[in-house]
Design brief:
CATH architecture of the largest domain in chain A: 3-Layer(aba) Sandwich
Largest interface: A-B, 46 and 46 residues
Number of domains of chain A: 2
Number of strands of chain A: 15
CATH class of the largest domain in chain A: Alpha Beta
Helix content of chain A: 25-40%
Number of helices of chain A: 12
Oligomer: homodimer
Radius of gyration of chain A: 26 Å
Strand content of chain A: 15-25%
Chain lengths: ~400, ~400
Amino acid sequence: MRGLETILVAYSEIALKSRPVRITLERRLAAQIRNMLTRKGHARVEVKRRFGRLYVEGITASEAKPLASVFGVANVMPSMRTKPDLQSVLGLTVEIATERIGEGQSFAIRPKVVGQHPYSSRDLAVEAGSAVLGALSGNGVHVDLSEPDVTLHIEVRDRDAFVYTEVLKGFGGLPYGSQGRLISLFSGGIDSPVAAWLMMKRGAEVLPLFMDQRPWVGESYIERAELACRTIAEYVPEAGFGLHTAPMGEVMSRIMEASEPKLRCVLCKRSMYRIATSFAEEQEALGIVTGESLGQVASQTLDNLFVLDSATSIPVLRPNIGLDKVEIEDIARRVGTYAVTAHRVEGCTVVPDMVTTKARIDQVRELEEELDLVDLCSDAVRGITFKDIDLEN
Amino acid sequence: MRGLETILVAYSEIALKSRPVRITLERRLAAQIRNMLTRKGHARVEVKRRFGRLYVEGITASEAKPLASVFGVANVMPSMRTKPDLQSVLGLTVEIATERIGEGQSFAIRPKVVGQHPYSSRDLAVEAGSAVLGALSGNGVHVDLSEPDVTLHIEVRDRDAFVYTEVLKGFGGLPYGSQGRLISLFSGGIDSPVAAWLMMKRGAEVLPLFMDQRPWVGESYIERAELACRTIAEYVPEAGFGLHTAPMGEVMSRIMEASEPKLRCVLCKRSMYRIATSFAEEQEALGIVTGESLGQVASQTLDNLFVLDSATSIPVLRPNIGLDKVEIEDIARRVGTYAVTAHRVEGCTVVPDMVTTKARIDQVRELEEELDLVDLCSDAVRGITFKDIDLEN
């Protein structure tokens, strides 16, 4: 074929930023695309920044799919590139049309001309349409502008022209790691992977922290957390992503001794916040991300959130707080975690018959002191281990 | 017609709750439906709770639309109700079919049989289908199960049967006010009404608090905030919703004297948090809701969120934190605030050329003390006024 295989990448929100911010984010996005392709085994890749687009070369169309999982990317268009003179553009368009439009199928031309060229978008559509018809109408190929079988996109930009027929939707957002680091309270249920993913999409680097509550919960919890972690790892361009695990069994055992069983869930959650906060300080992370949704379960009342927030000194980000269960499940399906995390695990054996919906901070603090929970949490932080998701395979 | 006009209301998340929680929420939802209809001028309305559904009587199908804006409602079905014996059901179905299926149009029967009845869903579909065809096939009326012009839903529940052809989608969520009270930092831009609405949807009662920064911003800001407030008032079933306004001009004037212009936005936002926190205490609200989205603008970095959070002692809920600008705009369109809040206002005159993205808490606190901002914020709280959105008209 006469074109050069080029993956065209479009981004949305980054384009709206002021010039210095935009350039920083474009560079970061280009680097993350390179990282993602390196993770996928493509070492010799070139990523060029051109106003409003990135050009990726060194992979084939069928290898372009992981680019749609790089945050910041709006669309991925596996294209053939040529020179922008009309003859080259029409020649390439006819070649691609011949390859991709089947007998009797319909097509449409979608032209986009950016910059100074001796033809308009409209001219291009007319010329390309008749060139394709001239070559293929013998096969029953015809134009259908509303519901074409094949859409031939022709995008002319300055010194390059691109022809493509496929657009892979990305997830938008900002490049991974461009907005600082967060610790995710990561149980591997439906909510926490969605919350972690939403903040990753907004450009945060996220370290998933799983609380190992054995022997008070079963083995299946760890397996589920690792599977969920592996699923969201697909969105992390950089190497070295994995699951951090804090041993929390001792803390749980002590909580079981509390004189108020109703407060167990609040004491447990506050311990998790506390462990995550110390881990954040150690890792220079700037906040915690959790999966809470207001009113979803008895422990997620405003009263209880107040008591939870007072166990940490850093921001708690709750991207699910305004979402319904069904909305969270919809996102989980898009992300790919639904199948993993809808997987039922045995219930937590610590949960009492009645959970308080109105914890009182003074009572909670008193119990924590009595049970020496703060010290036990420090032990848990010292015991945190790490499992690299890539190395493991 | 032989049926009784009944609006059938379905809810989703409430149905998943434990029995005592479910009953409380069902009662609250029924009360909020009555309140919403009272606000709309329908005084004599009956709302009955039946397992899994609410039955609303005393309004017509054309008056049912506001029910879809009551949070907790999944679907609104303006129906005709009859007895569940087959003869009554078929008779009503044919009457409604005759009224709503035009000449040559297609239809489908969608049956749902709950409880003990001498026929199954399948029997009902077959019987109803042939009854309608018997009555109308002379007019060219025919069955189309995949894309019917008219769908006849027949829902049989215990002692009642309902026939309806229209389903109005609600927004889901939990009944307004069932989850406690929040103060919304409400500018009336794109983000803050969406954030307030998302928390209202999750059952929070929300008091919008607008910061009147005149003379540092123009009159148009207040007008925009009032319009946005009126738009979200459509989702509030209870009377008495309106806009609270805190006079913040003095605070702004003092911030202009700060030796570090780069910190103005952080000082301003912290003052807003502080005023909202005092107002929350006064109003027994349990948190603040804000429109921040990570990395959307220079002031919404993790570093700055840390500095903002340390200006308040109560939870800050940020339902937009994980959303892209385009996602927030999509919600604004669904809510109805987009048209209002996309309306441009003159920029804030206080914003410096460079805004810090990494505020340092010690420096910020020093400046606040120097400028006596905490006292000025107390004055602002004392000056808060209220405008009732309903009374105003």
